[in-house]
Amino acid sequence: MDVLISLLDGIMVALEPINLGLAILGVVVGLFVGAMPGLGSVNGVAILLPFTFVIQSFTGGATSPMIFLAAIYYGAMYGGAISSITLGIPGASTAVSTTFDGRPMALAGKAHIALVAAALASFIGGTISNIMFTGFAPLLASVALSFGDPEVFALMLMAFATFIGLGGDDIPKTIFSICIGLVLATVGFDIVSGEPRLIFFDITGFTHGIRFLVLAIGVYGIGEMLWTINTNRHGSSMTQVDVSARSIIEAIKEFRHAKRGTLIGSFLGFFVGILPAAGATPGALMAYGVAKLTSKDQASFGKGNINGIAAPEAANNSASTGAMLPMMTLGIPGSPTTAVLLAGMVIWGLQPGPLLFTNQPDFVWPLIGSFYISNVIAVLVNLAFIPVFLWMLRMPFTILAPMIFVLSLVGTFAAYLDMFDVSLMVLVGFAAFFLRILDYPVAPAVLAIVLGPIAEPKLRQSLLFSDGDFTIFLTRPIAGPITVVALILIFLPLIKFIKNKMTTKKET
Amino acid sequence: MTFAKQIFIGLVGVTMMTGMLSSTVAAFEPNKPVEFIIMAGKGGGADKMARLLQAIVEKEKLSSRPLFPTNKSGGSGAEALIAAKNANDPDHTIMVTLNSFFTTPLRQPGLRIDNTEFAPIGRMAEDSFLLWVNKDSGITTFEQYLQVAKADGSKWVMGGTGRAGEDNIITNYLNNEFGLTMKYIPYQGGGEVAKQVAGNQLNSSVNNPSEALGFYESGDLVPLVAFTDERLPLFPDVPTLKELGSDFSYFMQRAVVGAPGMSEDALAYYTDLFTKVYASADWQDYKTKQSLMGEFMSGDQLRAYWDQQNSRHTVILKASGDIK
């Protein structure tokens, strides 16, 4: 009961005119930042952090500035889906998996359904995670603490397994694609030995490793554009879209088919989000993998399944709220964006840690209240803007292609301010195009480059801990079951394959 | 999206025009945003500090141009050092440094970085280190720690940030000085290390106060000994290693430096800027709360400090076998 009263008090504070105004402003800013390819919540929050000191000097206290930044964070999670669906370029790294099914739906003239599904799934994901955050924050913080290196590695293994065990795709090619991603993920300085690895031609740009967005924008911006040009050589294709209010209502009705994906995304995303070092991008990718794996209709994923949009979108919103948890209760950021928020809190004079909830209730509860408010604002603003986004799709591809090209270049540069990354992104785009011509799936490579940098240090830290003994992943109470499930998922296709062989033999 | 782009271009245009109008003929004034390189990733101690410095500059309106922070965390500062060395415009490139400013050029001579070429703008503070254990271990004194760690041998695990960095140096010292064989596991950041100790995944750490403060206040982490010359005001009951009879202290510099090739006028401007930042109430408050030590230092004094740190780290890294 105490929790509910505190929450109601918090919501009342969050509804004060100044805080409400900041939340609306933040959501709108976040929506646009998120929709710009390359720019994600982390850029929005980092750029506007100094502005919060102006807010603080007006309102005193850390609550209003934090509400503003959290609203940007929320808005960006909604916005990321927009360019993923309409242009096929991930608006932010968290929305990469939204392109898998969002783009095909848009090309099939169902962009309105995809956009509405993304908005509603985000809303539900956000709400479910808010409720879990409100009710169980201290308990969940102890769960996060019980996850050591072997546990995190086991979880990453499971994420890989969901992508290998997907059946439908060509398995050797999937594994090959994962391996390419893993190799690219090792470029840069090795954290355990401190030695440089795969610094090609001594180019300093490789010292920071190949950044995820460089790969994502290359693959889905440039690569996708080349592919579309290649397949539509005759005449310019124009996506048919229906922008009437009736179509939006029809799309909302259509959302009932996305229940399963939304629920998977909401819970899985939240859980991955609360683990420090993971964050929303792996959360969304894993939700996509699980949604596909557990679906009766696996073949339709990647071709425009509504659950393939709902799962990652619910997950990235849910994970963003989840990532706030270790930041506030343990003082450890679960994602790059929460790292900047953490810096903000310290600058405003707060000490994140296990005592934050007890020592700073005047800060914590209005902030949690504002999560609920921002979530409502974000879904309303987003639905209202959908006709505008759809209108963009009416442009013929001959106009859209150069726009995508420019946005890919600008977006990559804006994300890291490094020209080397821009050239690398174009190179990656061509490589992805050729892989696609040769019929290799690129999504597993993208997954590998997200999870590789998390999995590899965890594997090696675990093995350092156990003196090289691999049973550490099986003997620990939490890591053990996860590893077993992951191994089953990995070998499932093999078992299926043998089974199929045997049945066909019987028939002949 | 085109709309957003137009706004962006518009804003850039306006900023550039106001820039032209307000440029004066002072000795040196930045005439564009100043790139503020951070030698570490987002969320760590250096990052928090850089963003606070940026915020103070804006809040107190100390500079006509904003500082623009960029994180370059690759290779224990190697990426940042190279970026600063190759900066197109050294007068508009400054950097927040850690001790990797000393250790990385020593460990990787191939980078051809001479840290004495950097412009000594100002040392804002020195960060301190303490030895931490989980309260469940039941250890409350350094003597008990030595007993338990000795008995456990290489089963006793110390976590720290990076290989051959500050934490590794202190761990090596403890191992050599007290005949321990603790195992050292490197992590990406100090916050993660503190969490692993709080979650009983690791046995101990040598975190900075700021990284462990949250868990210290909640009672999960217990400080045993400080690697400082005098007791820290925030931890009055924690003895220093010197008190316990070993002549060892270790600090991390939190300094702002200018890119090699920065002009004398620009150096004077930034030194003046950060002297003001150092004196600001916000910075002093942050220094106290995060248990930072050390007075402001700049120019020749800071250069002399670097020389001293360079020779000390050469000795330390030779002893640990990280350099020949």
Structural features, described:
- The complex is a heterodimer of chains A (508) and B (324).
- Chain A is built from 21 helices and two strands.
- With 508 residues, chain A is an all-alpha fold.
- The longest helix of chain A is centred in the N-terminal third of the chain and has 36 residues, at 111-146.
- Chain B has two domains: 26-127 and 251-319, Bordetella uptake gene, domain 1 (D-Maltodextrin-Binding Protein, domain 2, 3-Layer(aba) Sandwich), CATH 3.40.190; 130-226, D-Maltodextrin-Binding Protein, domain 2 (3-Layer(aba) Sandwich).
- In chain B, the strands form two sheets. Chain B has a five-stranded mixed sheet with strand order 2-1-3-10-4, with helices on both faces.
- In chain B, strand 6, helix 6 (166-178) and strand 7 form a beta-alpha-beta unit.
- In chain B, helix 4 crosses helix 11 (299-319).
- The longest helix of chain B is centred in the first third of the chain and has 21 residues, at 2-22.
- Classes of the chains: A mainly alpha (508), B alpha/beta (324).
- The interface between A and B is large, with 62 and 59 residues.
- Global Rg of chain B: 21 Å
Overall pLDDT score of chain A: 86
Sheet with most strands of chain A: 2 strands, antiparallel
Q: Look at the structure and give the mean pLDDT of chain B.
A: 88
Integer count of domains of chain B: 2
In whole angstroms, the N-to-C terminal distance of chain A is 67 Å
Oligomer: heterodimer
- Strand order in the sheet with the most strands of chain B: 2-1-3-10-4
CATH homology superfamily of the largest domain in chain B: Bordetella uptake gene, domain 1
- Helix/sheet category of chain A: mainly alpha
Q: How many individual β-strands of chain A?
A: 2
Structural domain count of chain A = 1
The share of residues in extended strands of chain A comes to under 5%
CATH topology of the largest domain in chain B: D-Maltodextrin-Binding Protein, domain 2
Q: If you compute it from the alpha carbons, what radius of gyration of chain A comes out, rounded to the nearest whole angstrom? A: 22 Å
- Provide the spatial order of strands within the biggest beta sheet of chain A: 1-2
